Amino acid sequence: MTGPAPETPDIATADVGTADIEALRKRALTTLTTARERTALLTDCVEDPDLTAQHSPLMSPLVWDLAHIGNQEELWLLRRVAGREPMRPEIDGLYDAFEHPRSERPSLPLLPPDEARRYAAEVRGRALDVLESADFHGTRLTEAGFAFGMIAQHEQQHDETMLITHQLRRGPQALTAPDPVPAPLFTGPSEVLVPGGPFTMGTSDEPWALDNERPAHPREVAPFFIDTTPVTNGAYQAFIDDGGYDDARWWTREGWAHVRRHSLRAPLFWRREGKQWLRRRFGVTEVVPPDEPVLHVCWYEADAYARWAGRRLPTEAEWEKAARYDPATGGSTRYPWGDADPAPEHANLGQRHLRPAPAGSYPAGESPLGVRQLIGDVWEWTASDFLPYPGFRAFPYKEYSEVFFGPEYKVLRGGSFAVDPVACRGTFRNWDHPVRRQIFSGFRTARSGAV
After folding, report:
1. Which of 247, 251, 354, 357 could form a disulfide with 256 if both were Cys (CB 3.0 to 4.6 A apart)?
2. 145 and 129 in one domain?
3. Rounded to two decimals, what is the model's pTM?
């Protein structure tokens, strides 16, 4: 996230009532506080050398993320919303994600850990003063507290990025969390029929939705079947055992070249010991649990598995219809379970567990059609390129979404256990290069037809 001039002008909005203002203020305060508590946990659990080291060329040093979070909060809440003078303009370039790629960031004169913490804390103190007097109307940026929601989502997105860095980090375990509550073995149908016809994709009225989720628009989808749950480790092992990584039939041309070039044999962090598959998870080596959704696979691997299984990846529109369409009303809900905000019984979110829950968990979170775990657990690769919706307008800056549109990126949906509810909803869109495996990515498959 960066802070150039907006691509669209601020739009005047109607006044917000006093009760609504207080509710928005409380929501903004809660989400900002939750994000900062998570940031502190992720950066206080290791010593300074681990904060300043680059644990993978794919990721920034943790201390860069920490100061970047503060810098973006200053740019948007203090400078743009409140019109205040810059606190430390000399560091803006250091923490501009587009000016310096991740591989270069360790060589920059970054703020040391204690200074980065002080800077982020000072920014937060001033931002809360701005929040205390905010009236949430007058401009598109401030309407319904959008700027505060944008910053909370931005920080939580970096909290997920920092958790990925922790997974890549070598060394003793630094993070712990309780495992998900064991779920009864899922014995329901393996797939669900999603009826053909139109549905409303995207949103025009979710106050904190980001630009690529907008606007709501009709989308026609032919009938299709989709997996009731994400593909599991056990199912993916069958693909490996059947020689899936050695058979070019299942791979796209680019995917096969990638597999050969990098000698891929299994998901990232897996290794075979005798007849058993083991994985490394946040500093601990453990047996790969067969009933969990498979994790740390790239798009090419997901696509190859689907072909091997005689199926395919769902399109982004199919995924969203499965997640949001309510056949009883013909409308689209915010989440698979309805319009209520996520609760612990609905989905595995917020880093309260550091692993996916077993496939078939969270029956309270299933869609009206009976599809489970569409939100949380693992990001799900789709077949679709990351493209704008009809009528898309960049806001508040084109570098959030617009510069990434194109076939170089594939869409992921649904969030993961590492995602906070504020940054995950039925319309939320994530995207990445099809080679990425360090992210908390899995998938489910689909097939066309109504029979």
Report:
1. 251
2. yes
3. 0.95
